[in-house]
Design brief:
The protein is an all-alpha fold. The chain is 67% helix and 2% strand. The protein has a two-stranded antiparallel sheet. Helix 3 packs antiparallel against helix 4 and helix 3 runs parallel beside helix 5. The longest helix is centred in the C-terminal third of the chain and has 25 residues. It is globular, with a radius of gyration of 19 Å. The relative contact order is 0.10.
Length: 261
Protein backbone atom coordinates (compact mmCIF):
# COMPACT_ATOMS: atom_id res chain seq x y z
CA UNK A 1 0.00 0.00 0.00
CA UNK A 2 2.88 2.39 0.71
CA UNK A 3 4.30 1.68 -2.74
CA UNK A 4 0.89 2.33 -4.33
CA UNK A 5 0.43 5.62 -2.46
CA UNK A 6 3.92 6.75 -3.49
CA UNK A 7 3.23 5.79 -7.10
CA UNK A 8 0.15 8.01 -7.25
CA UNK A 9 2.44 11.02 -6.96
CA UNK A 10 4.87 9.59 -9.54
CA UNK A 11 2.01 9.07 -11.99
CA UNK A 12 0.81 12.64 -11.44
CA UNK A 13 4.32 14.05 -11.95
CA UNK A 14 4.80 12.07 -15.18
CA UNK A 15 1.47 13.20 -16.63
CA UNK A 16 2.17 16.81 -15.66
CA UNK A 17 5.62 16.60 -17.26
CA UNK A 18 4.14 15.22 -20.50
CA UNK A 19 1.56 18.04 -20.64
CA UNK A 20 4.19 20.74 -20.05
CA UNK A 21 6.54 19.34 -22.68
CA UNK A 22 4.14 18.20 -25.39
CA UNK A 23 1.20 20.58 -25.04
CA UNK A 24 2.97 23.76 -23.95
CA UNK A 25 6.38 22.92 -25.52
CA UNK A 26 8.05 24.13 -22.33
CA UNK A 27 11.24 22.96 -20.64
CA UNK A 28 10.10 24.43 -17.31
CA UNK A 29 9.80 20.97 -15.75
CA UNK A 30 13.46 20.03 -16.31
CA UNK A 31 14.60 23.44 -15.10
CA UNK A 32 12.56 23.11 -11.90
CA UNK A 33 13.71 19.54 -11.17
CA UNK A 34 17.37 20.46 -11.72
CA UNK A 35 16.97 23.49 -9.45
CA UNK A 36 15.37 21.48 -6.62
CA UNK A 37 17.37 18.25 -6.80
CA UNK A 38 20.49 19.17 -8.72
CA UNK A 39 21.71 17.99 -12.10
CA UNK A 40 23.54 14.70 -12.61
CA UNK A 41 26.49 14.30 -14.94
CA UNK A 42 24.36 12.62 -17.62
CA UNK A 43 20.95 14.11 -16.86
CA UNK A 44 18.82 15.11 -19.83
CA UNK A 45 18.08 18.78 -19.19
CA UNK A 46 16.55 19.73 -22.55
CA UNK A 47 13.48 18.80 -24.59
CA UNK A 48 14.45 15.38 -25.93
CA UNK A 49 12.54 14.63 -29.12
CA UNK A 50 11.36 11.20 -30.24
CA UNK A 51 9.82 11.61 -33.66
CA UNK A 52 7.39 14.48 -33.19
CA UNK A 53 6.92 14.03 -29.42
CA UNK A 54 9.04 14.90 -26.39
CA UNK A 55 10.12 12.31 -23.85
CA UNK A 56 9.49 12.31 -20.10
CA UNK A 57 11.82 11.12 -17.35
CA UNK A 58 10.08 11.81 -14.05
CA UNK A 59 12.61 12.66 -11.33
CA UNK A 60 15.33 10.55 -12.95
CA UNK A 61 18.16 11.30 -15.37
CA UNK A 62 16.60 10.05 -18.60
CA UNK A 63 13.50 8.29 -20.04
CA UNK A 64 15.13 4.83 -19.92
CA UNK A 65 15.55 5.11 -16.15
CA UNK A 66 11.90 6.09 -15.73
CA UNK A 67 10.68 3.14 -17.82
CA UNK A 68 12.92 0.74 -15.86
CA UNK A 69 11.51 2.00 -12.56
CA UNK A 70 7.96 1.66 -13.85
CA UNK A 71 8.68 -1.89 -15.02
CA UNK A 72 9.86 -2.91 -11.53
CA UNK A 73 6.82 -1.26 -9.93
CA UNK A 74 4.35 -2.90 -12.32
CA UNK A 75 5.89 -6.30 -11.54
CA UNK A 76 5.38 -5.72 -7.82
CA UNK A 77 1.86 -4.46 -8.54
CA UNK A 78 0.90 -7.63 -10.45
CA UNK A 79 1.96 -9.87 -7.56
CA UNK A 80 0.51 -7.64 -4.82
CA UNK A 81 -2.62 -8.33 -2.76
CA UNK A 82 -4.37 -5.27 -4.18
CA UNK A 83 -7.91 -5.92 -5.41
CA UNK A 84 -8.26 -6.61 -9.12
CA UNK A 85 -10.08 -3.38 -9.95
CA UNK A 86 -7.43 -1.18 -8.32
CA UNK A 87 -4.65 -3.32 -9.73
CA UNK A 88 -5.98 -3.02 -13.27
CA UNK A 89 -6.36 0.74 -12.91
CA UNK A 90 -2.76 1.32 -11.82
CA UNK A 91 -1.54 -1.21 -14.37
CA UNK A 92 -3.29 0.59 -17.22
CA UNK A 93 -1.98 4.01 -16.16
CA UNK A 94 1.54 2.61 -15.78
CA UNK A 95 1.46 1.06 -19.25
CA UNK A 96 0.20 4.34 -20.70
CA UNK A 97 3.08 6.25 -19.08
CA UNK A 98 5.53 3.67 -20.45
CA UNK A 99 4.17 4.39 -23.93
CA UNK A 100 4.50 8.18 -23.63
CA UNK A 101 7.90 8.00 -21.92
CA UNK A 102 9.64 7.86 -25.29
CA UNK A 103 12.08 5.16 -24.17
CA UNK A 104 12.79 2.33 -26.60
CA UNK A 105 13.13 -0.12 -23.71
CA UNK A 106 9.52 0.57 -22.76
CA UNK A 107 8.44 -1.54 -25.76
CA UNK A 108 10.04 -4.64 -24.21
CA UNK A 109 8.71 -3.75 -20.75
CA UNK A 110 5.14 -3.39 -22.04
CA UNK A 111 5.22 -6.74 -23.86
CA UNK A 112 6.76 -8.41 -20.81
CA UNK A 113 4.24 -6.95 -18.36
CA UNK A 114 1.27 -8.03 -20.49
CA UNK A 115 2.64 -11.58 -20.88
CA UNK A 116 3.39 -11.88 -17.16
CA UNK A 117 -0.07 -10.54 -16.26
CA UNK A 118 -1.75 -13.12 -18.51
CA UNK A 119 0.31 -16.01 -17.12
CA UNK A 120 0.01 -14.97 -13.45
CA UNK A 121 -3.73 -14.43 -13.46
CA UNK A 122 -4.36 -17.41 -15.72
CA UNK A 123 -7.09 -15.42 -17.44
CA UNK A 124 -8.80 -16.28 -20.70
CA UNK A 125 -5.87 -15.80 -23.05
CA UNK A 126 -7.97 -15.27 -26.17
CA UNK A 127 -10.03 -12.57 -24.47
CA UNK A 128 -7.07 -10.73 -22.97
CA UNK A 129 -5.01 -10.93 -26.19
CA UNK A 130 -7.94 -9.53 -28.15
CA UNK A 131 -8.40 -6.76 -25.60
CA UNK A 132 -4.76 -5.66 -25.68
CA UNK A 133 -4.58 -6.04 -29.47
CA UNK A 134 -7.45 -3.58 -29.85
CA UNK A 135 -5.81 -1.27 -27.31
CA UNK A 136 -2.50 -1.47 -29.21
CA UNK A 137 -4.18 -0.55 -32.49
CA UNK A 138 -5.82 2.45 -30.83
CA UNK A 139 -2.49 3.55 -29.35
CA UNK A 140 -0.71 3.21 -32.70
CA UNK A 141 -3.41 5.37 -34.29
CA UNK A 142 -2.97 8.07 -31.63
CA UNK A 143 0.84 8.15 -31.51
CA UNK A 144 2.33 10.41 -34.23
CA UNK A 145 3.61 8.53 -37.28
CA UNK A 146 7.09 10.02 -36.89
CA UNK A 147 7.37 8.60 -33.35
CA UNK A 148 6.23 5.11 -34.45
CA UNK A 149 8.74 5.26 -37.32
CA UNK A 150 11.51 6.28 -34.89
CA UNK A 151 10.89 3.27 -32.64
CA UNK A 152 10.53 0.90 -35.59
CA UNK A 153 13.86 2.00 -37.05
CA UNK A 154 15.63 1.56 -33.70
CA UNK A 155 14.16 -1.91 -33.21
CA UNK A 156 15.29 -2.96 -36.70
CA UNK A 157 18.72 -1.47 -36.04
CA UNK A 158 18.98 -3.39 -32.74
CA UNK A 159 18.10 -6.67 -34.46
CA UNK A 160 20.70 -6.04 -37.17
CA UNK A 161 23.37 -5.31 -34.57
CA UNK A 162 22.58 -8.50 -32.62
CA UNK A 163 22.77 -10.54 -35.83
CA UNK A 164 26.15 -8.95 -36.63
CA UNK A 165 27.45 -8.62 -33.07
CA UNK A 166 31.02 -9.40 -34.14
CA UNK A 167 31.04 -6.47 -36.55
CA UNK A 168 30.66 -2.74 -36.04
CA UNK A 169 27.43 -1.94 -37.85
CA UNK A 170 27.35 1.76 -37.02
CA UNK A 171 28.22 4.16 -34.25
CA UNK A 172 24.68 4.21 -32.84
CA UNK A 173 23.14 4.15 -29.39
CA UNK A 174 22.23 0.49 -29.90
CA UNK A 175 25.84 -0.40 -30.84
CA UNK A 176 27.18 1.37 -27.74
CA UNK A 177 24.75 -0.52 -25.50
CA UNK A 178 25.57 -3.93 -26.95
CA UNK A 179 29.29 -3.21 -26.78
CA UNK A 180 28.99 -2.26 -23.08
CA UNK A 181 27.29 -5.59 -22.33
CA UNK A 182 29.91 -7.67 -24.15
CA UNK A 183 32.90 -5.73 -22.80
CA UNK A 184 31.69 -5.73 -19.18
CA UNK A 185 31.03 -9.47 -19.34
CA UNK A 186 34.49 -10.21 -20.78
CA UNK A 187 36.57 -7.77 -18.75
CA UNK A 188 34.83 -7.89 -15.35
CA UNK A 189 32.48 -10.83 -14.77
CA UNK A 190 34.72 -13.51 -16.32
CA UNK A 191 37.59 -12.36 -14.09
CA UNK A 192 35.57 -12.17 -10.85
CA UNK A 193 32.53 -14.43 -11.34
CA UNK A 194 31.70 -15.27 -7.72
CA UNK A 195 31.67 -11.90 -5.93
CA UNK A 196 32.12 -9.30 -8.69
CA UNK A 197 34.10 -6.07 -8.65
CA UNK A 198 31.83 -4.08 -6.32
CA UNK A 199 28.90 -1.71 -6.75
CA UNK A 200 29.59 1.44 -8.74
CA UNK A 201 32.64 0.04 -10.53
CA UNK A 202 31.38 -1.80 -13.68
CA UNK A 203 28.68 -0.39 -15.94
CA UNK A 204 26.65 -2.05 -18.68
CA UNK A 205 23.30 -1.49 -20.39
CA UNK A 206 22.08 -4.79 -18.98
CA UNK A 207 20.70 -5.26 -15.48
CA UNK A 208 21.81 -8.89 -15.30
CA UNK A 209 25.36 -8.32 -16.56
CA UNK A 210 25.79 -5.28 -14.35
CA UNK A 211 24.66 -7.12 -11.21
CA UNK A 212 26.78 -10.16 -12.08
CA UNK A 213 29.82 -7.91 -12.64
CA UNK A 214 29.14 -5.87 -9.49
CA UNK A 215 28.30 -8.53 -6.88
CA UNK A 216 28.94 -11.80 -8.74
CA UNK A 217 26.88 -14.97 -8.97
CA UNK A 218 26.40 -15.10 -5.20
CA UNK A 219 25.02 -11.59 -5.05
CA UNK A 220 22.96 -12.03 -8.21
CA UNK A 221 21.11 -15.06 -6.83
CA UNK A 222 20.37 -13.23 -3.58
CA UNK A 223 19.23 -10.07 -5.43
CA UNK A 224 16.98 -11.94 -7.85
CA UNK A 225 15.38 -13.95 -5.07
CA UNK A 226 14.85 -10.93 -2.82
CA UNK A 227 13.51 -8.65 -5.53
CA UNK A 228 11.22 -10.93 -7.47
CA UNK A 229 10.45 -13.96 -5.30
CA UNK A 230 10.36 -12.38 -1.85
CA UNK A 231 9.19 -8.81 -2.50
CA UNK A 232 7.41 -9.55 -5.77
CA UNK A 233 5.67 -12.65 -4.34
CA UNK A 234 6.57 -14.71 -7.41
CA UNK A 235 6.19 -18.37 -6.55
CA UNK A 236 9.19 -20.51 -7.35
CA UNK A 237 7.11 -22.64 -9.73
CA UNK A 238 6.39 -19.67 -11.99
CA UNK A 239 9.33 -20.63 -14.19
CA UNK A 240 7.94 -18.94 -17.31
CA UNK A 241 7.47 -15.61 -15.49
CA UNK A 242 10.97 -15.75 -14.03
CA UNK A 243 12.35 -16.59 -17.47
CA UNK A 244 10.56 -13.59 -19.08
CA UNK A 245 11.93 -11.23 -16.43
CA UNK A 246 15.42 -12.68 -16.82
CA UNK A 247 15.42 -12.27 -20.61
CA UNK A 248 14.20 -8.66 -20.43
CA UNK A 249 16.76 -7.68 -17.80
CA UNK A 250 19.51 -9.38 -19.77
CA UNK A 251 19.43 -6.76 -22.50
CA UNK A 252 18.05 -3.60 -20.90
CA UNK A 253 17.91 -1.74 -17.63
CA UNK A 254 20.62 -0.66 -15.22
CA UNK A 255 20.82 -0.77 -11.43
CA UNK A 256 23.05 2.33 -11.48
CA UNK A 257 19.88 4.41 -11.04
CA UNK A 258 19.72 3.10 -7.47
CA UNK A 259 22.93 4.81 -6.38
CA UNK A 260 24.07 7.32 -9.03
CA UNK A 261 22.92 10.89 -9.58
Amino acid sequence: NKVINYTKYIYFICILEWILKNIFKSNLYNMLVNFLFGKGAYSVDFLLERGSAYTIQGLLREPAHLSFGLFIFLLILIFSNLNIREKNKYLFIGLAILIISGSLSSVAYIIGIILIYIIYRNVNKVKIILKYSILSIIVLCIIPRETVSYFFNRIVNSINIINLSDQIVSNTSEQVRLSSIIETYNTVFKLRPLFGAGLGIPYAYSTNIMILSSIGLVGFIMWFWYYFISIGRIKSNHIIIIFIIFIILNFIGSISILYSS
